[in-house]
Amino acid sequence: MQILRKTDQKAYAKAKKLGPKGVVKILKDKGLTGRGGASFPTGLKWEMVLKEKEKEKYIICNADEGEPGTFKDKFILVNNPELVIEGILIAAYTIKATRAYIYLRGEYEYLENKIRNVIKKVKAKTKSKANIELIVGQGAYICGDETAIIASIEGKRGQPRKKPPFPTVHGLYGKPTIINNLETFANVPLAILFDDWDSKLTLFSLSGDVTKPGVYELPVGTNLRKLVELGKPKHKVKAVYFGCFGGCMPYSNINLTNENVCGKDCMLGAHTIIVVDEKHSIVDMATNVAKFYEFESCGKCTPCREGTMRILNILENISLLEARKRDLETLQELAEVVKETSLCGLGQTATQHLLNALKFFRKEFEEKCR
Amino acid sequence: MLNELRKIQKKHGYVSEDSIKKLSKKTGIPVSIIYGVTTFYAKLHTKPTGKYIIEICDSPSCYLNGSLDIIKYLERKLDIKSGQTTQDKKFSLFIDSCIGCCDEAPAMLINGKPYTKLTKEKIDKILKKCKS
Ligand code: SF4
Ligand code: FES
Fold it and tell me: pTM value?
């Protein structure tokens, strides 16, 4: 796997030779894009922060991998954490930041000591003076949102705010901030050091109804069937979920690119694939995902807070065979309202799974209604 | 502040009113704000918890691999529901969102340590070990 290659911190030395502008250029030329879901060009983001005139600048590594079904960042932390730290230090060098934060999700706290040791080791080797502070999240899915992470590090409730201004201009403590996903940072040293580094290779987290779940490294645009077959499903596969927020679609022969998947009203996001086979009911899946959103809605705005609750109620009624067909209309309307009127990405995507399920698997819902 | 609150949670098993007041004095941040932050995060508790905090995942990959049965079994064995603590103050149970062990589902954390590929037999063994 490309992501398991060792650099021995030689990328940091090379970055210093290239200089800040050279680092930005090489990241742009090599085509590194963000791995958190938005695919924003990393070199461009760094350049934006580099150009800001403020003296104080910050770096945040988003290790708050909370999307259900996602475990690729953990995979990197367990198997090649040096890359992540080296990537952060290169960022610090590039924009002359003296302070960086790793926002680690609370569920991974058993990795804390290991990470602290690696920080020490890599810092000693690179002789970087930048401080890396580890902040351990305390269980809030919403903190995967970059503005929510910033609020959380600042000691506030981890609630998102409207963008713009973007963190590159107005980030942590109001200063220009580079905030990247952990997998992105891990790829920085690889992209800088290795001529044959392949920008297309990315990590997929495959789980659910498969006998060989795990992290698979494949090119963006890999065929869905090819990936799922690597997982050796036991029964006939019916649907896939792209985490909770990415929505669901019928199992089909498509190449996994943003465009293809968006055409089905899904989002590829962090390349999370949860496989559902024919033995499982989509109504039950919808209820499970709705429960997740009802729990994780941060409560700041009404449509998301109330909507996710009412949706869960109706879905539970359907599962208990106590709903009528017209409840499906209410469900659909609610889902649309939450999508259209919620403040942040969580609410805006919270009902996509349901809208898709109602579109592609409506029969399963109708069969359970009176 | 999050790291401070986490330390308190670790040390006492919950973030009491008292410790919030103390932290407020130390930092100059109003009690109401610290309280607001505390209640925002699922892992910070404002009521005492048991010696072992069990967080069991109920997100899709675990669900598809039978987490519901495991959760019911655990609730029956401990005789508590999610959010509660056993009378002997040994166990607190929380149903949680994904804990990132989806490739080894179903999974749970006990005091932050992962236990994966859970079966009823495994639960029996783990609880027995905690009790002894
Ligand atoms: S959409 Fe939901 S998660 Fe986002 S701010 Fe509103 S209530 Fe919070
Ligand atoms: S879905 Fe249970 S650990 Fe991820």
Answer: 0.94
